[in-house]
Amino acid sequence: MTATDPALTALSQGWCALSLLHGRIEAHIERALETSHGLSVREFSLLDVLSRQHSGPGGHLQMKQVADAVVLSQSATTRLVTRLEDRGLLTRYLCDTDRRGIYTDVTDSGLALLAEARPTNTAALREALDEAAKNPELAPLVRAVEGLNTPAVPTVTV
Question: Can you say whether the dihedral through the CA atoms of 109, 110, 111, 117 is positive or negative?
């Protein structure tokens, strides 16, 4: 396969279109969340992922799992957790069964902010998808996103 191979070119164009769609959606949601709630997309995602934990066995995510869910490195996730902890939106504590393990929970303030921000996130996502659907190159990708019936956030299983 060469760089001018039509299959490779089509693959590259598809990837560029997907990247463009992602960038437009993320930028639109970022503006809406920041303006209305003082949250970045990553901060919202982190609060959302952590709010889905439960206190039963296996219910808390390890930092690597959290990092994977918010698509950040472990060190970037730790810095993000620290920023949200400093704002009183998260709290950290040691695992009862493994003192090396540190868990992170969303505080009541964090849950309240998340509840306020969820409708903004949903509306901004819908607006961004509707706008992208007007672009013939992005419309098929929008339809694909709209057709997905799987949760974007991994669930915690025991």
Answer: positive
Q: State how beta strands 102-106 and 90-94 pair.
A: antiparallel
Whether residue 51 contacts residue 74, with contact meaning beta carbons closer than 8 Å, is answered with: no
**CA 130 from centre of chain:** 20
Residues 55-83 pLDDT 10s: 766 678 888 888 999 999 999 999 999 99
Return d(Cα 133, Cα 127) in angstroms, integer: 10
Enter the pTM of the model. Answer: 0.83
Burial call 114-133: b when 16+ CB within 10 Å, e when fewer: beebeebbeebbeebbeebb
- 96 class by beta-carbon count within 10 Å (0-12 exposed, 13-18 middle, 19+ buried): exposed
Q: What angle do CA 128, 133, 134 make, to 5 degrees?
A: 105
Following DSSP, what letter does each residue of 35-84 receive, concatenated? HHHS--HHHHHHHHHHHT--SSTT-SPPHHHHHHHHT--HHHHHHHHHHH
Chain position carrying tokens 């990092």? 67
